Amino acid sequence: MNTERTAIVGGSGLTWLDTLKVEQQKIVVTPYGDPSAPLTFGQFGELPVVFLPRHGAGHTIPPHKVNYRANIWALKQVGVKRIISVASVGGITMEPGILCIPDQIIDYTWGREHTYVEPGQSPVKHVDFTEPYCEDLRQALIEAGMNASVRLKKDGCYGATQGPRLETSAEVQRMHRDGCDLVGMTGMPEAALARELDLCFAHLTLVVNWAAGLGKGPITMQDIQSHLEQSIEAVKLLITHMEPC
Ligand code: HPA
């Protein structure tokens, strides 16, 4: 067990870190079921990491079926203290191609297992979530992004939708009025579960399309894919500039 490792939860386009020097893989059992994949321990540049692909090694688990509780629990169980959660998003106020480290969340998801608090547990624990992200980790990501010279927005509000369908243009307009800058399907309950377990958690988001109704015509998977491939390179570059914790 190594408490110095940074966890990287990979999203769409990041089911594997190709330059990761793998040390070992571990199947972790949790009280909440199986994580999305075995945990991979290794070295990513100078950074000792534990990597977990959120959608499974073969990218088969849709956003509403990810076992978020098992994933975050497993990372805690192996001694991780901080989690970089990589997630692709649609842009509401920022254009495809940019990376963003959001500082706020609005949760529109429903029906997901979103807490470790059990019915009947006494006392009921209410975690503070005023600032949903770990500011130290946000700042470390921002600094790494500046050193890596990637296009980066330092703040923004992440709106978490249920998926797996994309949004209607009216839903995106509502999210805009609510103050959302980004829309994604996996940000919650991941962030809140990390807070319940006292883990330092931040999102590294990649804007891969204009959100519904804001671009030219319908959102195509080809469009998403082309931005995804470019932005994933920027994500990897940023992470290689992260200081070990
Ligand atoms: N909406 C929700 N999730 C997403 C999007 C989007 O437009 N793009 C990438 N993930």
TrEMBL record:
Signal peptide boundaries: none
HAMAP family: MTAP
GO cellular component: a single term: cytosol
Keywords noted in UniProt: Glycosyltransferase, Purine salvage, Transferase
Enzyme's top EC category: transferase
Annotated positions binding phosphate: 12, 54-55, 186
UniProt cross-references to PANTHER family, sorted A to Z: S-METHYL-5'-THIOADENOSINE PHOSPHORYLASE
Name this polypeptide is given: Probable S-methyl-5'-thioinosine phosphorylase
CDD domains, per database record: MTAP_SsMTAPII_like_MTIP (cd09010)
Top-level lineage group: Bacteria
Amino-acid positions noted as binding substrate in the UniProt annotation, renumbered to this chain: 185, 209-211
Pathway: Purine metabolism; purine nucleoside salvage
UniProt-annotated site: Important for substrate specificity, residues: 167, 221
Residue span, Nucleoside phosphorylase domain: 6-240
Regions annotated as coiled coil: none
Quaternary structure (record): Homotrimer.
One MF term in the entry's GO annotations: S-methyl-5-thioadenosine phosphorylase activity
Family designation: Belongs to the PNP/MTAP phosphorylase family. MTAP subfamily.
InterPro entries: MTAP (IPR010044), Nucleoside_phosphorylase_d (IPR000845), Nucleoside_phosphorylase_sf (IPR035994)
EC number annotated for this UniProt entry: 2.4.2.44
